[in-house]
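3.2 Worked example (two chains)
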Amino acid sequence: MHFRENALKQLFCFGYGYTCDHLGHFLQQLGGWNVGGTTRDPEKKAELRARGIRGHVFDYTHPLSDPLFILNDVTHLLVSTPPGDEGDPAFMIHAEDIIQIPTLEWVGYLSTTGVYGDRQGAVVDETSELRPSSRRGSRRVRAEEQWLSLMRAYNLPVHIFRLSGIYGPGRSALDSVRAGVARRIDKPGHAFGRIHVEDIAQILYASMMHPNPGAIYNVSDDFPAPSHEVIAYACELLGIQPPPLIAYDEADLAPIARSFYSDNKRVSNRRIKDELGVTLRYPDYMHGLTACLEAEQFALAELQKVENTG
């Protein structure tokens, strides 16, 4: 791959959603980066462009209109599109275009710790066998393999990131509590890892600065915990009485919610620390939720200032 010194970096994200938006904002704040990405929604495309992000419409039925032009000079490519049964849409539609980008220094694929399946509370790391226990997990395994195949065949600098449950401002237990939809399900022994979106951004950036093609990273916090504890802490922060505990066997759960409880594992995050030198800003849900509330309160205060001066 061709490296350019002292040149403007170009990030392009297939699937410019919540996580990519935080990474893009982080890079724009650093300076020296141009950011672009795809959305399925033409209105969101216009919104992205109004914020200085080169937005393009893309999905299974809408390939990029001129991929070699749109991806010209891209140095960093992040793939966050949800896969289907056949794999990742960006791979299936644009792999041949991507391998022709001469400036690529780094490619990241956002996967999930769901690829490990249920380990009955045991610890997994990046070398653990993949045993997905859900259709979503199986799709991710297929997509990971698709992207890694391009590294083997074309030396594409692919990195895989297996994410635990993503949360952050506007998307956390605080929001489900406020909306009145939070439930506290008690399944003894069950724990689930989480990761704050700002920590995802710093981990991705650390990898960008220290590429290691073929590397796989678990992206999870230090403190896997039962979801009912997280809901209780969110209620404490908001000064709200927590909802009652409901035994898992007695809970009327939708299939997707039940699948959340079917996998039980502890995810080792040692590699992001040892190899990338990352120190998590939010090593547990307590730090993370407290920061979410502070960020929301700050944003509200700033909005009120604008309204008062208007």
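3.2.1 Second chain
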Amino acid sequence: MIIQTINLTKRYGKLVALNGLHLNIEEGECFGYIGPNGAGKTTTIRILATLLQPTWGEARVCGHTVGYESRLIRPLIGYVPDFFGAYEDMVVQEYLEFFAAAYNIHGDQRKRIVGDVLELTDLSYKRDALVDSLSRGMKQRLSVARVLLHDPRVLFLDEPASGLDPRARIEMRELLKELRRMGKTIIISSHILHELAELCTTVGIIERGELFFHGSIEEIVRRTKVGARVEVRVPSGQEQAAKILQRLDPVQQVEADDGRLLVSLKGEMNDFSFIARALIEAQIPIREIREEQVNLETAFMRFTKGIVQ
């Protein structure tokens, strides 16, 4: 187990940022950490990155205990915060060489490693550019390049795609996929759920400091999908359509949501033709009928209540 927390708790006075967190992450996993703002994601990552001390409980990284063995943990991890750090008056190559020297990487080895991470992050052509002149997306890639200099086993990324334009987000996602192929263990928090679904092997959903779910994407979708739900769109007569559908025997509940009707059925079904027949008989025109697609975003909305601390 490369990451393990046992009853991990962090309090700020009366505020409980983390409440008895139990988390296990295997080596080579890409773990997506999701939850509303203030849920405890950043607090967890900062504790695991040895930047915060827990109030009580235990956190272990690569077999070492946070707090007691933090000096042994730091050479094994890389931490990318959601904002870029200082030293913006340097050029890109100087910036990376400065941090390589901090990791006791010197001489020809340093030059080679800096060149390798620039190539990996597709920043070679920017080696002589001022860091301050880079776009936000390039700065985020430079942050990743910085934490790869010492070849860490574990990467902690706190909202790495925050504020990025669509192209920069795609480039960041492809970079993280390459790091996953290299065998890195990645813990990433993000609000861009469809990208996490493509990238991550496991996810955890946290709200108000408590972990509600931890498992694979397939498992969370399976747990979210209890009975079939069908989306029905009608150009007019939505209220009448809802009343008609609610009276049908297989229908458990009908909800109006954003110009559509969400029809919850009493069990798993593959044939929804009875919905169309009922509406046609009532002379209500139909624009669309389709089964609701359950994905990570659907699961997140059903597992959480949007409550912040």
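3.3 Remarks
The mean pLDDT is 89.
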